[in-house]
Specification:
This protein is mostly helical. A two-stranded antiparallel ribbon has the order 1-2. It has one domain. The chain is built from six helices and two strands, in the order αββααααα.
Length: 113
């Protein structure tokens, strides 16, 4: 007799489990289980107060003073580091040319959603 647990066992055999690093981000993610990866990354962005920046809700404004521009640039770099550190080499190469963390995140979303 077939049960839902049989289905879960089959999925586990076909897919490697996603490993999480000390910051809660996936490690060496290869494109499997986008939903889990996405939510783990959204949690990591939120924990680091980067969720609005990663999502594109905060954009650089020409009227900002230099200190605010520098803080924004540093936050974008942190988003890029979180993303690149979570990806397999193959996926990292697909998004590493993006200028900002926001662009990297949007690229991953466009690929997997």
């Amino acid at each position: 007799m077939y049960s839902s647990s049989d289905s879960e066992d089959g999925k586990r055999k076909r897919h490697k489990e996603i490993k999480l690093g000390s910051q809660g981000t996936p490690v060496n993610w290869n494109g499997e289980d986008w939903t889990f990866y996405k939510h783990a990354m959204l949690n990591a962005f939120e924990q680091n107060l980067l969720d609005e920046i990663a999502a594109g809700g905060v954009v650089e404004d020409a009227s900002w003073n230099q200190a605010k521009k520098d803080k924004f640039k540093k936050s974008q770099a942190e988003v890029k580091i979180l993303i690149q550190g979570s990806l397999s080499m193959k996926l990292a190469k697909q998004v590493m040319s993006k200028k900002t963390g926001t662009e990297m995140w949007h690229e991953l979303c466009s690929i997997f959603e």
